[in-house]
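Support case: user asked for a sample of complex input and structure output to validate their parser. Sending the pair below.
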Amino acid sequence: MTGSAANWQYAPAPESTKVEIKTQYGLFIDGAFRDPMSGRFFDTINPATEAPLARIAEADGRDVDSAVQAARKALKRWRRTPAIERAKYLYRIARRIQERARELAVLETMNNGKPIRETRDEDVPLAAAHFFHHAGWCDKLHFAFPTSDGKHPASVGVCGQIIPWNFPLLMAAWKIAPALACGNTVVLKPAETTSLTALRLAEILQEVDLPPGVVNIITGGGESGREIVAHHDIDKIAFTGSTEVGRSIATSVAGTKKRLTLELGGKSPNIIFADAAIDQAIEGVVSAIWANQGQVCCAGSRLLVEESVADEVIAKLRHRMKSLRVGDPLDKNTDVGAINSRAQLDRIEHYIKAGIAEGAAHNAHNDVALPPKGFWCRPCFFTGVQPAHTIAREEIFGPVLAVMTFRTPDEAVARANNTMYGLSAGIWTSRGSKAYEIARQIKAGVIWCNTFNQFDPAAPFGGYRESGFGREGGRSGLAAYLA
Amino acid sequence: MTNRADITKTWKLFIGGAYPRSESGRVAPVVHARKSAAGIAVAYAAQASRKDLRDAVEAARAAQEKWAASSGYLRGQILYRLAEVLEGRREELIEAIRVSGRVGKGDARREVVAAIDTTVSFAGWTDKLDCVVGGRNPVSGPFHCFSQVEASGVVAVFAPEESSLLGFLTLTLPAIACGCSVVAVASSADPLPALVVAECAPSADIPAGVLNLLTGSRDELVPAVASHRDIDAVVASVNQEHAKTLQLGVSENFKRLRLVDPNADFMKNDIWTTPRAFDAVTEIKTTWHTVGS
């Protein structure tokens, strides 16, 4: 590099990227945008300002049927497309996501409320990585899944995919990339409150000339989702969301041949042993429960601290929590953005009240001034929490941490496993042998040792028990999309 | 010369390493299928109740953690021992398949041989599944990240109505091989071959509670399994109506479910011993550990 430091330029702030948002978006069916049959649209807003951003189509049963028909029609040719050709479409999608990364990051932050730092550094790069990684799988499936005739394993067929609002673009990538790599076609429904980046992805699919019907994107509320689940010509349902909705989906596919994978809720333990590097662990706790406002299925929402270091951990956590900046998600310095919706904010506040009412101590030392409009919840944690407390058992999906203590490793494991969920766990210790032994004993699909909330397309993700079944990512994630 | 009166054995359940009668006291005849011998009881089998199922699940739960924690090498030796014991009881197994008159001698002989070979095959999977479906994940960061196989826990198996020995072992052994404990329900019409296997289990050193076997009515046991919240997975060869009941049971506690076509041909054994045999009875656990100072 030539030149001196004086010549260095600041990189443009991502928020300076102008994002064009149309006033109205149709449904993406068979390669084109079209208005919903009902002619009904609903507003999508910016949760940080409550200002409307665009009008989104409300799909009904007729629209879902058209999308499924388009996916069925496209399936025949798509699954016969030579693997290396399928791969190139996925590579193209990955490239276009990378090239439009700033626009996607800003759009995601505007529609979701999460800090631009996260959409810029996590959501969008990971979404691109998922397409890039799975692109390379297309022509290698028969090595990972050998068939008796040596040919490529068969795809499942038409996949109905329903995704949540907490990582809108990333979840779309998690769902679409492996499905397409394995030769399936897709009808995807983004969450009601966060459709914009999925619709932007639809534009990218048009740009890269993905054959019409291979991916169809249907917007709408719970009713549109139920139409997908109930459609007779869908071969597989993949759902990420709450355990409650997962339960109703499992019930409604009973009696059919539909395959099902579910990535559901969690109440994940984050365990700090006395021999851990405490400062690193504190940063891990911050990321585990306050990243994305705690609206993360695998959030480390139960902190289990070894008794001898509990005072130190709580003091440091209090200090760290005080310094978190809550506010404008488009500001690069923001740590905690807006809650995604009024309904979710109400739900979180309900749990905070329940925590206080049941006798736990509410530690709310963050007193940053909040913007006048929008949905805000300051990060907080509870001490004096009993395992039977509501805030220790139920998924809150907000920046609310329940802190408990333990004395022995056995007690830590027993407390960690004392839940119907089993999505993730964090273990903080400087002894590797101990970390692996505790990891072995914990009933959860993803275990982070001396780190938390790491995701990678090469690493299988998914839960035990009531956190659902099936994996996303890695070889195991492909299995869910092969017959 | 007078004919000797045969002893018509009453087969009991197999729960927690013991052979109890059903707590309900019920017993039903295993009847001959051939018209010429219609209605003749060739044996009697206990009719398990919901309570027997609950007892079996408790026994299975109690045994599971230790079984899963044992090495794949040990589980492999025990399953190979089971194959050795079954080999020694070939003639008895052939007779058990034939006794109700549904299967001819040649087919019974072929089924027994295939069943023993299937047992040998699964004995070999115990310490290999992990490196075939798991392994190190090449993540783009300073982490040692790997995925490994873990047993789902307590598994209920509804063995096929036909293929009463081979089908039973083909659906039961993957769970046992990977460290689950099993509550199996034998073929209703032909429970004897599975009951012989249950008598072999202790000789093969399968720990008490790892394999439990019930005989009885599926109309009664399918709903009981579906609604049981301490069963982690179900592998079932059942009719459509029972399949739907089990599918509805998934929403109880998200038990994993593998439905097997009731008309499946288990003699094509190379398709039944692939890693996919372990789909519902294993979980993938991904562990990340930081790399650095």
